[in-house]
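note to self — DONT lose this again. spent like an hour looking for the file last time. sequence + predicted structure for the chain T wanted, 120 res
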Amino acid sequence: MRETMEPEDFSIREDAQEDRYTLILAGELDLASAPTLEAAIARLCSNGASEIVFDLGALAFIDSTGLRTILGCMSLCEEHLCDFWLIPGQRSIQRLFELAGLLGRLPFREPGRRTPETSA
């Protein structure tokens, strides 16, 4: 029997507007918390989300597993034809994306900015 690790220092607050979701990630995105985020994205994509935004502003720490998880979430969204965006985090979080060579590969946008499809 496989034991699952419960994330102690991680939370996801979900803000929904119709089929568009903003997930406010807080705490530490690492080996212990990655499955929680993966499960949330799988659920939203399966339920027909048209847009998912990760707000990284309250994220205090991210490791290589967290980076890999974000890339996996982006791929899952692409498979489900769901738009995927990231709102930048603190300087230390953004620095890790930079060091990993992911700043140009991930779709970052500023808070409150809407995509052409979602602005009315």
